[in-house]
Specification:
seven-stranded mixed sheet; globular; binds zinc ion
């Protein structure tokens, strides 16, 4: 597995893509503009922590991603978290803004424990918290997880892994990357956003491998996004097909595809893991 190219450039690409997709997809424009504000915040958090902790992070053991946040002064973490809360209060949808306002009234210890508990269960057990409540700690922890992931080696991969080989998180998105004449299917982790190779005909939720039970739907409006469903467990995976659109930025194109979530939901499919904005 190649470390993802994260850092300033990757965040800039996400922000540019969100701005680019906002006009042809008016139904998602508000969500995409809000996302680009959050991504700006994540970009600066990532850059600052990389500068200060990059050396400490070198040479981590495989599988050590979840072992605590790096030794960052709690006061500093809380002060950055307060900045994110302010962004959400100003630019977020009203319910999220209200949640951010409530969290900003908590004391420093409770704020830290919110970030730390998400660090432990994010992408693993966050169904317990619900898509909506997880947004705020997820938006904060994700750039730190991406940073640590970039420095953490992957252990040996034995077979098709249902969970991220770096942090144990569940996938939330599939990616088809061009390879030879076709595409190579990969899964993207809902917690640390790293990708790993995955079998083409295989349900990441229940392991179904009968092609007849794994229908793929593509809507005219999003020719580069596949809805890969499983009739056995009724879970679906959304896959960004980079062989169809090489300019797509998977985490961002997925946010714009709100109608596909509604479509799948109407047909009784549920998503294995929601995206950052809970769709
Ligand atoms: Zn992961
Ligand atoms: Zn299944």
């Amino acid at each position: 597995m190649k470390p993802a190219q994260v850092g300033g450039t990757e965040y800039d690409a996400r922000i540019r893509r969100a701005e680019h997709l906002a006009s042809p997809h008016p139904f998602a424009a508000e969500v995409l503009r809000f996302y680009s504000r959050v991504a700006e915040f994540q970009k600066s958090l990532y850059a600052e922590f990389k500068k200060d902790f990059g050396l400490q992070l070198a040479g981590r053991m495989p599988g050590s991603l979840r072992i605590g946040l790096p030794a960052i002064e709690p006061k500093r973490l809380v002060s950055h978290f307060t900045s994110l809360l302010r962004v959400i209060e100003q630019a977020g949808p009203s319910a999220l803004a209200a949640a951010a306002r409530e969290i900003s009234r908590l004391d420093a210890v409770s704020k830290l424990s919110l970030l730390e508990s998400y660090w432990d269960v994010g992408g693993i057990n966050d169904q317990l918290i619900g898509a909506f409540a997880q947004f705020i700690p997820r938006a904060f922890d994700q750039p730190l997880a991406e940073l640590i992931a970039a420095f953490t080696p992957v252990g040996p991969v034995i077979s098709t892994q249902h969970r991220c080989p770096l942090c144990g998180g569940q996938p939330f998105l599939g990616v088809l990357r061009p390879e030879g004449d076709g595409g190579k299917r990969r899964m993207m982790c809902s917690f640390c956003l790293q990708e790993w190779d995955f079998r083409r005909i295989y349900c990441p939720a229940c392991g179904e491998e009968d092609e007849k039970k794994l229908p793929v739907y593509v809507a005219e409006q999003f020719p580069h996004i596949r809805v890969e469903a499983c009739e056995t467990c009724k879970v679906y995976m959304r896959t960004i097909d980079l062989t169809k659109d090489g300019n797509a930025v998977p985490v961002v194109d997925d946010l714009a595809a709100i109608p596909l979530s509604l479509w799948a939901h109407e047909r009784g499919y549920t998503r294995l893991q929601p995206n950052l904005l809970g769709t």
